[in-house]
Amino acid sequence: MPNIKSAIKRVKVNDKKNEQNRATKSRINTAVRKFKLAVDKKDLDEATKLYNEVSALVDSAASKNVIHKNTASRKKARLALMLKAAK
C-alpha cells in the first residue's frame, strides 16, 4: 500500500475505473450473447434490434477508451456479417 497521499488516491481511482470498465465490457458481452441467440433462433426482428443495441454499447465503450476503436469496429463488422447471413 502506498504511503503518499496522491498515490493512495491514484490506487482508489484506478480501482473504481477498473470496476467501471469491467462492468462495461460485461454489458457488451451479455448483449452480444443475446444477439447470437436471436440469430440462432432466426428471430430477425429481435436480432436487428439487439444489433443496434450492441453497436451503441460498443461505440460508447470505444469513445471512452474502454476498448480500442479497431476492436469495436471489428466486433460490429462480425456481428453485421452474422445478421446478414441470417437474413
What brief labels describe this structure?
single chain; 87 residues; mainly alpha; Methane Monooxygenase Hydroxylase, Chain G, domain 1; 3 helices; 0% strand
Overview of the molecule:
By secondary structure, this protein is mainly alpha-helical. The protein has a single domain (5-86), classed as Up-down Bundle (Methane Monooxygenase Hydroxylase, Chain G, domain 1). The protein is built from three helices and no strands. The protein has helices at residues 5-40, 44-63, 69-86. α1 runs parallel beside α3 (69-86). The longest helix is centred in the first third of the chain and has 36 residues, at 5-40. The model has no long low-confidence stretch (mean pLDDT 96).
